[in-house]
Design brief:
This protein is of the alpha+beta class. It has helices spanning 15-22, 64-69, 90-107, 162-173, 190-196, 278-288, 307-317, 368-378, 414-419, 457-469, and strands spanning 4-9, 30-34, 39-43, 49-54, 57-59, 78-85, 110-112, 143-144, 148-152, 157-158, 177-182, 187-188, 202-207, 211-214, 220-224, 227-230, 258-268, 294-296, 303-304, 322-327, 334-343, 346-357, 381-390, 406-412, 435-437, 444-448. The strands form four sheets. It has a ten-stranded antiparallel β-sheet with strand order 19-18-20-21-22-17-23-24-26-25. Strands 1, 2, 3, 4, 5, 6 and 7 form a seven-stranded antiparallel β-sheet that branches. It starts with a strand and ends with a helix. The relative contact order is 0.10.
């Protein structure tokens, strides 16, 4: 059974339903709390957690249960209640399963995974105990060493849940890397991929042939000195430290699916009237004809799209940075992350956005100049890079090779164009000269990159453009 069990219910679990679920271990099982009462835990005789239950989350965005769990949820809005069992304790997994099954039985709905539904009887857990602190101190962390915190995720999609977000935060505060272990067939949310960063943080995939490998690089891994690290080939040298690549990672099949990716930054004056999220909504509308479906501070994205509410959250957290995720609907898969930071220049919004397209769908490349102009004239665009790459329509990251994107266009904001000496921004060594966006007196510039989208020539053109703009 998976370590995570989720109840999807049309009604909010009331205190009596939660209590009935917590009695899955019998009336003598200890109950504790964490996070100012946001997490309730069933504990062993020493007070260490067997099962951690997070406060129910109201989800008002369609398609999130299907995207992250492959499950059919009740009509929105519905309640998402997660229980996480302590790793390696069979009774803990049974307790979590009975908790979710009881909850669904009492308030309606269903439990995920589907094989969770079963007996409602009390789980015999007398004498069961779990690892001592500090490994059990953080519910999402399964193994803790002096190098890394390891999280085991047996879910269809490893998403940036509140659990995993807490694990990232705890690992960062302790100066540790975060390593996520998942079975073969699991995919990764782009949000988690972008948060992993570099070594020693990794996504580790279990594999029948090679044991373990890095889901983002394919490097075969072994548990060595308190962390998953690459296996070194016998013929490796200091100048050529060869690492075997997993066979599963190299099994690439071109389905014709593609992703259109945009990365852009906006810098706003620090004004009380500032509303965030407008730039993201503008691009989303230009490329899909509608705004994002929803947003949140973790996955699932649970709130209907609202720049005003997003701004309120960022304002409450200021001057600390704020991070959001936004998602599209099922007809046009899309996902974006937004990082809001207060700097000397003002309020910065960094957006990473991707839309997925099937083999029979054409990305709206003709709409890119209009989207760029709207950002430049209405949302204080600083810069934007547009790429097209062969990747899954559902925008999930598979544990196999996906080629890099090919740059299609680069945009320089009006202030950056104005700050550049002479005609450097307007006259480039590329065969296609930039397109002026906005007013003639303060234009932004759109640079089409003439590289063939089917190969990597676009990167050559992009690098040449960057060297020119920097005066190199």
């Amino acid at each position: 059974m998976t370590k995570d069990v989720i109840a999807l219910t049309p009604r909010m679990p009331d205190p009596w339903a939660v209590l009935a679920g917590l009695l899955s271990g019998g009336p003598d099982r200890l109950v504790g709390t964490r996070g100012e009462g946001a997490v309730i835990q069933l504990c062993d005789a020493q007070g260490r957690p067997l099962v951690s239950v997070e406060a129910p989350l109201l989800v008002s965005v369609e398609g999130e249960a299907e995207r992250l769990l492959g499950a059919t949820a009740p009509p929105v809005p519905y309640w998402w209640t997660e229980a996480r069992a302590t790793t390696g304790v069979a009774e803990a997994e049974q307790l979590a399963g009975v908790f979710a099954t009881r909850l669904a039985a009492l308030v309606g709905g269903s439990a995920w995974p589907p094989d969770t539904a079963g007996s409602l009887a009390v789980v015999k857990s007398d004498g069961v105990s779990v690892a001592p602190e500090p490994a059990a101190a953080q519910p999402a962390i399964d193994v803790l060493t002096q190098k890394v915190a390891v999280v085991i995720q047996d879910r269809p999609v490893v998403a940036m849940t509140a659990w995993l977000s807490d694990a990232f935060r705890a690992a960062a505060e302790a100066g540790l890397g975060l390593q996520i272990v998942s079975p073969a067939g699991t995919t990764l949310s782009p949000v988690v991929r972008d948060a992993l960063g570099g070594w020693p943080s990794r996504w580790i995939v279990q594999d029948d042939r090679d044991g373990y490998y890095d889901g983002l690089t394919g490097a075969v891994l072994r548990w060595q000195d308190g962390a998953f690290d690459p296996v070194i080939s016998p013929d490796a040298t200091e100048d050529d430290p060869r690492t075997p690549v997993a066979a599963a990672y190299q099994e690439v099949h071109d389905t014709g699916e593609r992703q259109l990716g945009l990365t852009f930054r906006m810098v706003h004056p620090a004004d009380e009237r500032l509303v965030l999220g407008g730039g993201l909504e503008t691009v989303w509308r230009e490329l899909t004809g509608e705004p994002p479906a929803g947003w949140g501070t973790s996955e699932p994205a649970n709130l209907p799209w609202s720049p005003a509410r997003l701004t309120d959250v960022a304002h409450e957290r200021a001057p600390e940075p704020t991070w959001f995720v936004a998602v599209g609907n099922r007809s046009r898969p899309g996902i974006a992350t937004v990082r809001v930071t207060r700097t000397k220049a003002g309020v910065e919004e960094e957006v990473t956005l991707a839309f997925g397209y099937g083999a029979d769908e054409e990305p709206p490349l003709d709409a890119l100049p209009a989207a760029a102009e709207a950002l430049a004239t209405r949302h204080r665009l600083q810069s934007m890079l547009v790429q097209l790459r062969k990747a899954r329509r559902d925008v999930a990251v598979p544990p196999r090779f996906e080629g890099p994107g090919v740059p299609l266009a680069f945009v320089l904001g009006a202030e950056e164009v104005r700050a550049m000496p002479g005609d450097r921004a307007r006259r480039t060594p590329l065969s296609e000269q930039p397109v002026r966006l906005g007013p003639r007196t303060r234009p932004a510039l759109y640079y089409p990159l003439p590289g063939n989208p089917s190969d990597l020539a676009g990167w050559r053109d992009f690098e040449q453009l960057m060297r020119h703009l920097k005066g190199a």
